[in-house]
Amino acid sequence: TEGFSPHSIQLRSPVPLFAEEQERLLTAAAEDEAWSLPAIWLMLRLGLSRGELLALRRDHIDLIDPERPVVYIFYDDVTKRGKERKLAGDADFGRVYADYLEAKSPVDLLFPVGFQAVNGMVNRVRAAAGIAKKVTPETLRHTFAVDRAKDGADEKQLLALLGLADDPRNRDSVRRYLKLAEPPL
Question: What is the pTM assigned to this prediction?
Answer without folding.
Answer: 0.92
